[in-house]
Amino acid sequence: MSRSVLVIGGNRGIGLAIARAFADAGDKVAVTYRSGEPPEGFCAVRCDITDAEQVEQAYKEIEERQGPVEVLVANAGITRDQLLLRMSEEDFTSVLETNLTGTFRVVKRASRGMLRARSGRIVLISSVVGLLGSAGQANYAASKAGLVGFARSIARELGSRSITCNVVAPGFVDTDMTRALSEEQRGKIVGQVPLGRYARPEEVASTVRFLASEEAAYITGAVIPVDGGLGMGH
Questions:
Q1: 140 flagged as catalytic
Q2: In terms of residue numbers, what domain contains 63?
Q3: With CB atoms 3.0 to 4.6 Å apart as the test, which of 39, 160, 171, 221 could cross-link to 230 if both were Cys?
Q4: 196 carries a ligand binding annotation
């Protein structure tokens, strides 16, 4: 049965792989993007999730085109890496505003329709960095760790309406961002991963799609690592 799916930040990398996974399963998929070009084959809406009005307008457009959102995947995220003593207030707050507060906005808006339908799936994309920490990424790690507490609170609030909320925590994924690293940097990263390689975006996407499936109806408040064993024990 085709569902209305929304992937926040779905125009490239992990987000695009997630959008394609749902589309391949027959769902109606909308994606939001802040910059760059919209991907072909999806209901694509430009939206900056740091702007509450843009979030509201994006939802209205998506609801008109494919109905209330039944599956929400919150994937948007930015980095402003810097060591703590060099990190500016703006470096810190801008990352939290997008990665954490922006997620709050899109989840709150999606939950309206889900509560009326007494059904829904919410999946938040965190990071192994939110569990392990990373030098130079205090802002990013804080925002991604915050998603765990946020998701588990939402899981408790909305569970009685058959709405699940889970977190996927990817490790190092083979995307344009990591391909820009030097061979030496890539080698050091892979050396930390027990499986000895980067994840493919599709491997993250398949985990997200499982959490949104009927088979995962009794899973909520979970944090699922897709990190090759990098963060085990956290």
A1: yes
A2: 4-226
A3: 171
A4: no
Q: Give how many domains the chain has, as a whole number.
A: 1
Say what the pTM is: 0.95
Q: Per the structure block, which two tokens stand in for 83?
A: 């060591």
Alpha helices in the chain (DSSP H): 13-24, 52-66, 89-96, 102-117, 129-132, 138-158, 176-179, 183-192, 201-211
Percent helix / strand / coil, the chain, rounded to 5: 50, 15, 35
Catalytic residue among 33, 59, 140, 198: 140
Is 99 labeled as ligand-binding?
no
26 is known to lie in a ligand binding site: no
Q: What is the pLDDT of residues 71-95, one digit of tens each?
A: 999 998 999 999 999 999 999 999 9
Q: Using one digit for the tens of pLDDT, what is the confidence trace for 97-149?
A: 999 999 999 999 999 999 999 999 999 999 999 999 989 999 999 999 999 99
For 170, residues 6+ apart whose C-beta sits below 8 A from its C-beta are 14, 125, 126, 127, 128, 199, 204, 225, 226, 227
CATH at residue 79:
3.40.50.720
